[in-house]
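Job type: complex structure
Entries:
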Amino acid sequence: MANGRRVIIGAPPQEAKAYLELVAEHGSPLLVFDREILERQYQLLSDTLPDVELYYAVKAHPNEHIVRALDELGCGFDVASAGEMDMLMDLKISGRRTIHTHPIKKDREIRDALRFGATTFVVDNLDELEKLVPYRDRVGILLRVSFSSEDAAVDLSRKFGCDVRDAAGIVMVAGKLGLHIKGLSFHVGSQCENSAKHVEAIEQCHQLMEEISKSVPVPMSTLDIGGGFPADYQLAGIDISSFCAPIRKALGRLPRDWHLLAEPGRFLVAPSVTSITTVTGRSERHGTCWYYLDDGVYGSYSGQIFDHAIYPLQVLKDGTTRPSILAGPTCDSIDVIAEDIQLPELEIGDLVIGHQMGAYTAATKTRFNLLPDARFVCRYDNS
Amino acid sequence: MKHFKETLYDAVCQEFRIDKLYFENRTKHQHLMIFHNARLGRVMTLDGIVQTTEADEFIYHEMLAHVPLFSHGRAQRVLIIGGGDGAMLREVLRHPVEQVTLVEIDKAVIDIAKKHLPDHSAGAFEDARTNLTIADGLEYVSDTDEKFDVIICDSTDPIGPGEVLFSEEFYTQAKRCLAPGGILVTQNGVPFFQLDELKVTARRMAPHFVDATFYCAPVPTYYGGFMAFSWGTDDTRLRQTDMATLHGRYDEAGIKTRYYNPEIHRASFALPQYILDALSGTS
């Protein structure tokens, strides 16, 4: 391990052969989607949170194969833009199965969402509330409240969410405007180490909703617990059932008729996609071996910049290791995937595998240098 | 897709079983679906909202066509805005009119409805009196020099391509296109669930017509009780057309109807108190 990154040296012959065959068939770089892993992740999460309706955060990886697989499993969809809704409509997914969760919206976005059929919207301030007044006969609103998370890799409480102390006031104003706030939503952040923040947020929301419901004519009954379910970037074998057990327990204390929602993205898709890149060049610089790959931080590895993720890497070769650097294909010096990692000597044409690369990877790739995108291929494709 | 769930409201929705899907795709302007339901026959939806079903379309189309036409009594030139399924055209053509102009923004609705909802138009597009124009309804009424005795706005809801047909500019221009004694009628939603839409239309129409009001009919698949139709004319006598006159016109026309009759015609202008309260600003 270097800089908290898990590095696997070598691969069992069958596994190595599979990677090589994929590249022989489809070229390089690749993002290889394994539908069975996605199905397993969905099943694990629904089993451990049986009373929670899951809405896949489409932004994590807006890919039609992923969305279609989740659609077939009966998963709902959390959308945040007209583009994401367009994609779902192309895949014949009804807006009735989606929630629109972006707290800040243009009027046009609200209208597009209503035409698509999404009627649940999220707000976190009075301006946003007022934008929904013309549509008050149609919409249901979730008020996003903010709880900060020191554990989370990405703290989402800074940009969005109202202070819990302001929640009651906003609900009152909504009532006066003829708008119904049907519940609360929160995001404790992404990639949480444990679920303590979720539990605390659930308990606070419970109290808040009970309290507010006393003084408004229409009770609040929906709680959206957001995301934050972790991906296994250390390949340490995260037990999602243990992670969720306290959440399940906390949710069990809520009134039985409340509607519970979650917006998992990372947990579902991260392990279901694997990156394959190829060494296209190398050079010896100051005693370190530089390997230039055909994918990098402007492409599939963009999550290392935007998402602060450190993906587990694997080389297929075994042998004596030495200090190495893996760099991406663009001309920019920031395009380095891993520095100071110990790797066996690689040759041009050797493969470098990136694991847990399904979430916020291709989603944030850029067009820099106009390099071709990694090709998305489906493993064990039966369709 | 085995079921259709309407996406109009967050808290409630009507659900239809899809027994056979005939069409489901995006046109240039909107999302269009036509399917068969065992109870309702063929159902057409636009942007996830029920537009018409074979089982109950007669209520909507008879009321939006015959109420203004029998009130007017001698309409020769009629303008329909929207109504791409052709059923409004069909109903209007049952009257001895000279010409009916149908202005539809989305040609695909006409083509696909002709194919998958043929009983709605029942050949009306082929009638020699039909003048079909593919255009934006607001642009049409703003540009045309023609005058009409009756204008029927058979639009979608106010979010989407039908949006401009609820604008004050539309009422201004439509008024300009009416011949003296002409009548504008529009579909105006289900006030029980869409009270704002009723209030907004009332506010926008009032300045342009001496007699601006609504009349109602319950269309089962426009879930929520009465649907409101707006009524705008400068001839206040038209709404008061007496029963004998209506009966005379109805009998003379020899039109067999299933919802409309002269008694219903008169009664449809009686508005429930919740609608009156909304219109007077007391709710």
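Summary: The mean pLDDT of chain A is 94. The first helix of chain A runs from residue 13 to 26.
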